[in-house]
UniProtKB/TrEMBL annotation:
Phylogenetic classification of the source organism: Bacteria, Bacillati, Bacillota, Bacilli, Bacillales
Keyword hit for rRNA processing: no
Domain Flagellar motor switch protein FliN-like C-terminal: 254-322
Gene Ontology biological process: bacterial-type flagellum-dependent swarming motility; positive chemotaxis
Organism encoding this protein: Pradoshia eiseniae
UniProt record similarity statement: Belongs to the FliM family.
Subcellular location as annotated: Bacterial flagellum basal body; Cell membrane
GO molecular function per UniProt: cytoskeletal motor activity
Membrane topology classification: Peripheral membrane protein
Cellular compartments per GO CC: bacterial-type flagellum basal body; plasma membrane
UniProt KW keywords: Bacterial flagellum, Cell membrane, Cell projection, Chemotaxis, Cilium, Flagellar rotation, Flagellum, Membrane
Descriptive protein name: Flagellar motor switch protein FliM
SUPFAM superfamilies per record: CheC-like, Surface presentation of antigens (SPOA)
InterPro entries assigned: CheC-like_sf (IPR028976), Flag_FliM (IPR001689), FliN-like_C (IPR001543), SpoA-like_sf (IPR036429)
Tree of life domain: Bacteria
Length: 333
């Protein structure tokens, strides 16, 4: 029998037909014994399993959420992006399916071989351009007469948008997307042979009241090294517990690189507005801080340490003596 799953209603109807004699059980057995021929189109070679396509869909659903956040911030308006389909088809068929004149961004993704294509419908691209330039997001179509400024603004916008793919693919592999080409005519773009299998992920996007499509074309040569990582078995092996130490390490590294302002307060004082206005070079201001007492060092405006002023290599410096304890704040760290 075929691999299709029958509903309970269909099963009941089949049993009823056999009971009433409308269908012969022996004939069904003979049909089962006959070899079934399945049509296969060699021009449309399927190199990815359904399991792998589902994994790619999950990855790019995360990418869609990242793009939604990015474009909403850049365009300062409501943006909604969703994955509508993930298909594998010949590269030539994909090129024929997109408009004759459209926005094409070609990215290299080292260390992977090959290039990835991001196709943006002109209506969406011009709406984004209008928002970036301070407009209401109106869409016009003059793609054949793009100015150098418009080309530069669009390419910068989509180049920064595609950087989110690094985070979306982080559980599979580390990539460094780089914009290598900006084109408007698909006929001038030949990334892979016409019969090469590509995965096309289609996104629906709404910018205010303007809607359109964004397509990402990923050739087989790009995904070939990471195909084993697209299986459910790999995703189950890479459990959350195994990923947590890596995520914590990344978070810790970013915290360590954060800059903190440290202020050594030499001492406060008070002067009248009149004295302040009459200050000149060479005047001396008396501070209300004894010279024999340590200075207070504040980190982010919070008192943390006591220190002693001095010099290191002819530059002013402060030596930390102990933790600051005072004013109701006690920090042992």
């Amino acid at each position: 029998m075929s691999g299709e799953v029958l509903s309970q209603t269909e099963i009941d109807a089949l049993l009823s037909a056999i009971t009433k004699g409308e269908m012969d059980a022996d004939e069904l057995k003979r049909e089962e014994s006959v070899k079934r021929i399945k049509v296969y189109d060699f021009k449309r070679a399927l190199r990815f399993s359904k399991d792998q396509i589902r994994s790619l869909t999950r990855i790019h659903e995360n990418f869609a959420r990242l793009l939604t956040t990015y474009f909403s911030a850049q365009l300062r308006t409501y943006v909604q992006i969703n994955v509508t389909s993930t298909d594998q088809l010949p590269y030539e068929e994909f090129i024929r399916s997109i408009p004759k004149m459209t926005i094409l961004n070609v990215f290299e993704v080292p260390p992977l071989d090959g290039r990835i294509l991001m196709e943006v419908n002109p209506k969406i691209a011009y709406s984004m351009l209008d928002r970036v330039l301070g407009g209401r997001g109106d869409s016009v179509n003059k793609i054949e007469s793009l100015t150098e400024i418009e080309t530069k603004i669009m390419s910068n916008l989509f180049e920064r948008a595609f950087e989110n793919l690094r985070e979306a693919w982080s559980n599979i592999t580390d990539i460094e997307p780089v914009l290598s080409e900006f084109e408007v005519n698909p006929q001038f773009l030949q990334m892979v042979p016409p019969n090469e299998t590509v995965v096309v992920v289609s996104f629906s996007i709404m910018i205010g009241e303007i809607g359109g499509m964004i397509n990402i074309c990923i050739p087989h040569v790009v995904l070939e090294p990471i195909i084993p990582k697209l299986s459910v078995h790999y995703w189950m092996q890479t459990s959350k517990k195994e990923r947590e130490p890596v995520e914590l390490q990344m978070l810790e590294n970013r915290v360590h690189k954060a800059n903190l302002p440290i202020i050594a307060e030499l001492g406060p004082t008070e002067i009248s507005v009149s004295d302040f206005l009459n200050l000149h070079i060479g005047d001396v201001i008396e501070l209300k801080h004894p010279t024999d007492k340590p200075l207070i060092l504040s980190v982010g405006e919070v008192p943390k340490f006591l220190g002693q002023a001095g010099k290191v290599n002819k530059r002013m410096a402060v030596q930390i003596l102990e933790n600051y304890r005072g004013g109701g704040v006690e920090d042992e760290s």
